[in-house]
Amino acid sequence: MGESWVNSATVLGADLHLELSGPGSRRAALIRALREAVRTGRLAPGTKLPPYRSLAADLGIARNTVADAYAELVAEGWLSARQGSGTRVAQRAEPLRPAHSPAPRPPAARPVHNLLQGQPDAASFPRTAWLTSARRALTAAPNDAFGPGDPRGRPELRRALTDYLARARGVRTDPDRIVICSGFAHALRLLFGSPAHVLDGPLAVEAYGLEFHRSLLAAAAVRTVPLPLDEHGADTSQLVSLPGVRATLLTPAHQFPTGVPLHPDRRAAAINWARSTGSLILEDDYDGEFRYDRQPVGSLQGLDPDHVVHLGSVSKSLSPALRLGWMVLPEHLVEPVLAAKGEREAWASATDQLTLADFIERGAYDRHVRSMRLRYRRRRDRLADAVAASAPHITVSGIAAGLHAVLELPAQDGEQGEEAALRAARRQGLALDGLTAYRHPDATGPARHGLVVGYATPPEHAFGAALEALCRALPERRG
Description:
The chain is an alpha/beta fold. Helix content is 36%, strand content 16%. It contains 13 helices and 19 strands. The strands form 6 sheets. A 7-stranded mixed sheet has the order 6-14-13-12-11-7-8, with helices on both faces. A 4-stranded antiparallel sheet has the order 15-16-19-18, with helices on one face. The termini are far apart. Mean pLDDT is 88; it is low at 1-13.
């Protein structure tokens, strides 16, 4: 039989795709197709097959042909049939691996305790409150929410963010200057990595920051120039001496990862540089809500909305799984960013946007942030107390805000001391980072060494054990 039939049969909610081809009868072709689907794993063990009457009708063949094929495959052990439960793929019918396939590798040992930075406690996601907002949002959603939309993002979310950011972060904007994106990395790609090239030229960055962001920019052929960093944050006074630099990326509320806020004089220096040269400041407000010891540092954007791009997301406050962020743009950048964003493909889910808008407007977002602020502050205090008790020679820094702390290792131990501490941490089943990994490769001046400890990540019941393991991994005082 030289013909081929391709069938997508919908039976009891399941789709079955079969191709009948090759020599012989239709019964033989059906047996070959089913056997091959099981052998290759397209039909997994336990999968329920369509009743033979339905499959026969969809394929345009006799019912007896399908019944005979099923019966033969049951006899061979490929399928199983029980009265009242239909015909299924036999549980022992596992797909065969090609002879040349290598043996599967054993899974790598997973760390016992996750103290990596940048991750909130996933168990604390406000499921009930989020579900309430999802129901409310879907019930109230206009019909156009389920069709082609505005690349700026849903107007409901942009209005909610305008009010929230003004109240909580001191941002000055209006809904038409907010563009919804999928997070901070997406925002960087829109600004630097798109064919539109919204921003060109080298970018000044802080001497310590995420290597992932530097790699993303390097892939877009953007050269990054490090700004020196000290206890007052990035030295923005040096911006005026960097030839060709017309933009800088800063974390002014809480420097990442060292944790210091940008000094008021350096905030002013950055704004003056941007105004006098027509340059731009990209403000990464990655965890601006989580300040513990005093009022949050206000947004840099509030000082000059025409020269600062404010970038935020819910990845720290709610969950990175939501993939929701925002860009608060100077007016002249809105259209270029929308052109870079393009049509539909890079848009965040409209239903998630509507849910977040309701979540913010009915106060659930504020309540969640306040609750998590208290919880994370207690964890931060437990971390600081545990290190002070077991390793008083190690300084805990960057703890006024955020979701991580830096354990500064003795300067005389250098990079080797950091590597030894990381090895000890791995032996204790800990996943965490060393400070060296965040240093820009072109940074000058003395390097700092330490451990970057994310105290927000472990679930509540596991945090005590994670602290104990961390303290066992810390180096003892020398001399």
